[in-house]
Amino acid sequence: MLAAPLAACAPSISLTAGPYATDPVCASIVLAMPDRLGSLERITASAQAAAAWGTTSSAVTLRCGVEPPPPTADQCQAITDATGASVDWIVVEEPGTGDWVFTTYGRTPTTEVRIPAGMSGSSVVDLNRAVSAAPQTRHCL
Fold this sequence. Notes:
mainly beta, nine-stranded mixed sheet
């Protein structure tokens, strides 16, 4: 009987689903997300194909099914985790906020991770295994 009232109190962050969030690969990616990202606990994300870690006021967020990035001169990094899963990420610092935005490159569907200013971007490597479920069609140069 207590499960419903406690579930209603779980922290939740409001996010907007990407236009391709209904892609079945996004469901696989989100289901494979870790419960913790470094020291951050996973919290509920309101959007389909989304995940978040931290607090409702300061969270690392992930959205699968976002628009693929256009051709860009922004930094593209191949990041490999301890298991050998490698994901190419376009890395951009958001003007004005200092937040970091990591967007997968060459994977369909595209996944975006936002890391608030002041938080370490190194935690993105912990998402590689799940994100690598999206087929890779291109690589960083």
